[in-house]
Automatic annotation (TrEMBL):
Cofactors named for this entry: Mg(2+)
Main location: membrane
Family from the record: Belongs to the UbiA prenyltransferase family.
Protein name: 4-hydroxybenzoate polyprenyltransferase, mitochondrial
High-level lineage: Eukaryota, Metazoa, Ecdysozoa, Arthropoda, Hexapoda
């Protein structure tokens, strides 16, 4: 009766067919097979409900269900597309007369036929995913190791650099296109290097987490030695980009490498690995200004750096909620686990701190009003994320995490427009001074 439930659970866990049947034969010999089958259905309830219509109880299915056809129920389902580009799943459920009403799942308490439709968003591959999939097969594992198929991390690393470069531009001028391009290449390469380092440290952990089981170092498509050699190449390219900047930037940029190496270890030690990630990801807020002016103005850059750090804690806490169940089982620590049900309260605090840092940085720089309008838009965006966030829905957490790319873009455009309007303010001040002197 419970054979199919156990088999379904093993399939979800991607056990090979040979091992699957060996485990299944062993499971059927033990006395607690019913508990094991129920556990399989409960742990993967979202998958089973989606595919087989299982509730938390075990329901006979397949050839073994024939002997229960007079007292149980039968389900079938189909899928089709609707006009809104959703995958619509239609379920038809027929509950036959039964004296064993207690065996029916709670979702179907009555006899008869029911038809249920639910909408599931269709996953549309991004351009980056399509490009990676079209590359030669022997190249794809290295591209996936760099997470080229998921560029959101590169954007989140790049935006603090772009903010600082734009804020360091002269009044009435656009930011340096050369610097923006150099930092874009650097963010792309160093984000890939950081992912390689992270996967080298975490390959044993990734093999036990459902979301990360397909990573190249876990599935064996790349060996650890090949990954180390590839990492050296990435760091070499990053160094070449760094050498295009002034000597102050070379020293400042090289000093961040310690944080890059240290971050993957922090999840084993502290509940605040997101703080270390924030210090690492927002180093560009210091580096971008130094690339323009040859030094760091702490009055402008330090509040911007701390604001970016709070922002990283904000979005990476949301991201960490996707894996919090596996993390607890594996002993991995994160702010998602520490904050727990108080996550929204903590996120509100870090979002407020980010806005405060951005305002302080703007006032120190003397930037124009469009910047403050963009800060208000960013505050609205963060508040919307906190309000709508469902920390127990991994899909919702992933969508909220990705939406933070819009936060970086909004603020960057506000800084650019604010610096362009800054020259008008300076001209007005000069005109007022001349009038005072003439009087």
């Amino acid at each position: 009766m419970y054979r199919h439930a156990i088999l379904c659970g093993l399939i979800v866990r991607k056990i090979t067919p040979f091992s699957r049947h060996s485990i299944l034969d062993t499971c059927l010999k033990i006395s607690s097979v019913r508990s094991l089958a129920s556990c399989m259905c409960t742990n993967r309830r979202s998958f089973c409900t989606r595919k087989w219509g299982y509730n938390s109880k075990v329901i006979p299915y397949g050839s073994l269900a024939k002997q229960f056809s007079q007292s149980q129920h039968y389900r079938c389902s189909g899928t089709y597309r609707d006009r809104n580009k959703h995958l619509v799943r239609s379920k038809t459920t027929t509950v036959l007369p039964s004296c064993k009403k207690s065996s029916l799942p709670q979702a179907l308490p009555k006899e008869g036929s029911q038809r249920i439709s639910e909408k599931v968003p269709v996953h549309v591959p991004q351009i980056s995913e399509k490009l990676v999939n079209k590359c030669p097969l022997h190249v794809q594992p290295y591209l996936k190791l760099m997470r080229i198929d998921r560029p959101i991390g590169t954007w989140l690393l790049y935006w603090p650099c772009g903010w600082s470069i734009a804020m360091g531009a002269s009044a009435g001028c656009l930011p340096s296109l050369e610097m923006l391009s150099l930092f874009a290449i650097g963010a792309f390469v160093m984000r890939g290097a950081g992912c390689t380092i992270n996967d080298l440290w975490d390959r044993d952990i990734d093999s036990k987490v459902a979301r990360t089981q397909d990573r190249p170092l876990v599935n064996g498509s790349i060996s650890p030695l090949d990954a180390v050699i590839f990492l050296m190449g990435q760091l070499g390219v990053g160094l070449l980009v760094l050498l295009q900047l002034n000597a102050y930037c070379v020293v400042l940029g090289a000093s961040s490498l310690g944080l890059v190496i240290l971050y993957p270890l922090m999840k084993r030690v502290t509940y605040w690995p997101q703080f270390i990630l924030g210090l690492t990801f927002n180093w560009g807020a210091l580096l971008g200004w130094a690339a323009i002016h040859g030094s760091v103005d702490l009055a402008v850059c330090l509040p911007l750096y701390l604001a970016g750090t709070c922002w990283t804690i904000f979005y990476d806490t949301i991201y960490a909620h996707q894996d919090k169940v596996d993390d607890v089982l594996l002993g991995i620590k994160s702010t998602a686990i520490k904050f727990g049900d108080n996550t929204k309260l903590w996120l509100s605090g870090f979002g407020t701190s980010m806005i405060g840092g951005l305002l302080l940085s703007g006032m120190s720089c003397g930037i124009g009003w469009p910047y403050y309008a963009s800060v208000a838009a960013v505050a609205s965006h963060l508040a919307s994320q906190v309000y709508k966030l469902d920390i127990n829905n991994p899909s919702d957490c992933a969508n909220k995490f990705i939406s933070n790319h819009q936060v970086g873009l909004i603020l960057f455009l506000g800084i650019v427009l604010g610096m362009l309007s800054k020259v008008e303010k300076e001209n007005e001040e000069k005109a007022n001074k001349q009038v005072v002197q003439e009087c």
